[in-house]
Amino acid sequence: MRAAIQPLSLYCSNSSKLMASSSNSLMWFRKGIRIHDNPALEYAAKGANFLYPVFVIDPHYMEPDPSAFSPGSSRAGLNRIRFLLESLVDLDLNLKKLGSRLLVLHGEPGEVLIRCLEENLASAAGIEVFSPVSHTLFNPADIIQKNGGSPPLSYQSFLKLAGEPSWACAPLSTTVSSLPPVGDTGRSDISDVPTIKDLGYEDMAKDDWTPFRGGETEALKRLEESMSNKDWVAKFEKPKGDPSAFLKPATTVLSPYLKFGCLSSRYFYQRIQEIYNNVEGHTSPPVSLVGQLLWREFFYTAAFGTPNFDRMKDNKICKQIPWNDDNELLAAWRDARTGFPWIDAIMVQLRKWGWMHHLARHCVACFLTRGDLFVHWEKGRDVFERLLIDSDWAINNANWLWLSCSSFFYQYNRVYSPITFGKKYDPNGDFIRHFLPVLKDMPKQYIYEPWTAPLSIQKKAKCIIGEDYPKPVVSHDIAIKECRKKMGEAYELNKRLKGLISEEDLENLKKRNTEEDQRQNAQTKRKRQTLNDWIQPQ
DNA sequence: CTTCTAGTTGATGGC
DNA sequence: GGCCATCAACTAGAA
């Protein structure tokens, strides 16, 4: 028997219990909700008489949580849960076309899988586990090793270390043409893919659904649409994109499909390379389309190699900054009532679409943290993590570290203006009018600063500031000065602290760290030793 | 060890 | 509208 667990495993992948004459395979889908370029699926199907394709729904992540600030579970907003279910329905359909189907199990994955193995495949004496790296282009552990044990902290040094992926010119796993049948499913509590209602949710009004549908089929369709415009692909420059474009977004919007693995990042990479090879010239990392995939790799590597990556405390690449704990300001930001239409419109787009342009994310993240409100980046991270349909633990945390000038990026004087930044792209304020209809009749000269409109204009636009739409929670001019001052002081303190440590306590600290490391090694390092064990679930 | 360079994506004002 | 210097000044990594 074989259990090809893709792309994540509870077990180590270097199993010695290989059974050459195996005939039953269990394919555990976690990420990688796709058929194409799926080495684990291909491996599981090869030579198997029966194949059990399984997805486990963990109630811990999927149960409705009424206490959360938006509909959804404790971990994910309803838009992302729906996106996942759509992806599973599509996977089931695609499996059926190949003579198989998806078996959905419910419960804590470890327990459920062991029960499933016992009930259905118990006759086998040994289990071979195969859990290949296929969610990312590189294995972060390799990059870290090349760099002497620590992850590179700049994109350029990452590029140098990474080089070309080993499979760049080789054919990827081909799409399988047929799959072994599903065997006897015994007495397991196997179900079809549940609906939102099956999971206990009252679904949102369809107007509030994200416009992006989940699934591999949709992912490949979207990829083809982007790739069909070769000129656009070749000339792609991320920073030149328009964050206010919403009828036709300025990027591919393939991130949610990469997040769930509905689209293979390697297949995406090869498709872009193919175009590069057939055009005159093309852009390069960091701004190019391939450069975007490499950002993902860079952040996965940093996250994989940095203990406590998702917090300020005990995170050695994170600046220690005395962020405030103002729940009022946080709630105003989260609920799109800061009084800055550009910021609030983006936050509405986040809630409704689960997706915003990269630069739009920059604007609201900067505003919440070092730019205006000085609220802790972890709080903003939590809101993004819940609401984004593409939220990815490594990438989300990395970008919050970046935008708050806590790591990777340190030029805290460069602050996005919540008033003028959006205006450059969208002087008429169409983006604001769309996501904040209360402001749809505000004249364009006031749309980014409606509090400056004379009362007569506000009345005419049927939008009284302070009643129909909030007054700004802070004065940007004052807030930016205070924030810069606090950032300067915090940086100064971090520097002094570093100096102090190196003079007096370095030896003690080193000793303590070594001891701690050894303790941690014994306890947790075994669990984290493969990338697959580390990637966070849905 | 110190010094130097370059860094995905700021805002402003002058030309 | 695009380009440039200026603002004040950061860090990682290379030299």
TrEMBL record:
FAD binds at residues 251-255, 292-299, 390-392. Keywords: FAD, Flavoprotein. The record marks W323, W377, W400 as: Electron transfer via tryptophanyl radical. GO terms for molecular function: deoxyribodipyrimidine photo-lyase activity; DNA (6-4) photolyase activity; DNA binding; FAD binding. Residues 510-538 are annotated as: Disordered. Its cofactor is FAD. It holds the Pfam family DNA_photolyase. Residues 510-519 have a biased composition (Basic and acidic residues). Coiled coil: none annotated. Binds 1 FAD per subunit. Residues 23-182 form the Photolyase/cryptochrome alpha/beta domain. PROSITE patterns: PHR_CRY_ALPHA_BETA. InterPro entries: Crypto/Photolyase_FAD-like_sf, Crypto/Photolyase_N_sf, Cryptochr/Photolyase_FAD-bd, Cryptochrome/DNA_photolyase_1, DNA_photolyase_N, Rossmann-like_a/b/a_fold. One of its GO terms (cellular component) is cytoplasm. One of its GO terms (biological process) is entrainment of circadian clock by photoperiod. Belongs to the DNA photolyase class-1 family. This is (6-4)DNA photolyase isoform X2. It comes from Cucumis melo. The gene is LOC103499773.
